[in-house]
Amino acid sequence: MAYRIAGIDVHKKMLAVVVADVEVEGESEFAGQRFGSHPEELRRLSAWLSQQGVEEVVMASTAQYWQPVWGALERSWKPVCHRREGAGGMSGGLPLAQAQSNRGRKGGKKDFPDAERLLKRLVAQELILSFVPEACTELHPVYRRLLPMALQELPFLAQPRDQREQEIAALLRQHEDAVQRLAEVPGWGVDSAQQIIAEGGATAATFASAKNLASWVGAYRAMRRARQSRRAIVPRKAVAICGAFSIKPATLRSEPQGVFFRWCIVGWCRA
To answer: How would you classify residue 204: left for phi > 0, otherwise alpha for psi between -120 and 50, otherwise beta?
Structure first.
């Protein structure tokens, strides 16, 4: 009785698939087909495997590229294989081999030969197979009760945050122009502007000059070094402060003369 197995050599954008009957005497004949890796091609792969009467499909765990292939075959091909008349206990199997156990000789990387070697080593039990747990399709009754309770608590968790945002906006209403001006800086926003004003004041009066303010942020030294080396430099302190202010570090990557960041700071100090 024929028992057909498929081997798949998985790549990022291409699948090399071979099928062979392993119950025949002598050398098995391989039928090869090439498929893409996007969903439409994976559905076509499942249909082709069903037409070929494949009982098992083996593939190697190549990076993360095997996961969508595995998922598509488990959803589309495996149920059809189980419903087929005369299906055995191994029908619908999806053994996943560790890529290291299917290594060929150095410099001999080829698509279809690799898939054939994968299939042959599965039959010879020379592969190291990985354990893949079955997908959970049913939720435990306990979690079914806990999930609605957690969802009901979400509005109460968000309410204090909304109240704090309203209080901050009310306290900074007299500095609304400064908030809007800072929020227009690329990479910043209203939240960042409110935090900056809370730290340095609406007019940055804490600092005697724009250089002092830039030095506090950690960017003035970067501007001096940028003028000397003619390349963008972002010091570690500036990146850390940017993270605290929710500012993208790319904003601090000064041009050779540091014009952009200096313009931001001077514009704030002139408010």
So the answer is: left
CA gap 140, 185 in Å, rounded: 50
Helix (H, G, I), strand (E, B) or coil at 5: strand
Q: Which residues partner with 21 through β-bridges? A: 4
What are the angstrom distances between the C-alpha of 137 and each of 68, 134, 148?
18, 9, 18
Can you name the residues that pair with 96 across neighbouring β-strands? 59, 130
pLDDT digits (tens, 9 = 90+) for 130-178: 888 776 556 778 888 888 888 888 888 777 877 888 888 888 888 888 8
Whether 235 contacts 220, CB under 8 Å: no
Q: Give the single-character DSSP code of 148.
A: H
Residue 262 lies in a domain: yes
Q: Do 55 and 21 touch, CB atoms closer than 8 A? A: no
Tell me whether residue 222 is in a domain.
Answer: yes
- Whole-number Å distance between alpha carbons of 114 and 17: 10
pTM: 0.50
Contacts of 161 (CB under 8 A, 6+ apart): none
Question: What is the rounded CA–CA span in Å between residue 10 and residue 102?
Answer: 12
Question: 122 and 15 in one domain?
Answer: yes
For residue 264, give its domain range: 174-269
CA distance 69 to 158: 39
Are residues 206 and 114 located together in one domain of the fold? Answer: no
Asked, for residue 181, whether it belongs to a domain, the answer is yes
Question: Which of the 8 DSSP states describes residue 74?
Answer: I
CATH number at residue 56: 3.30.420.110
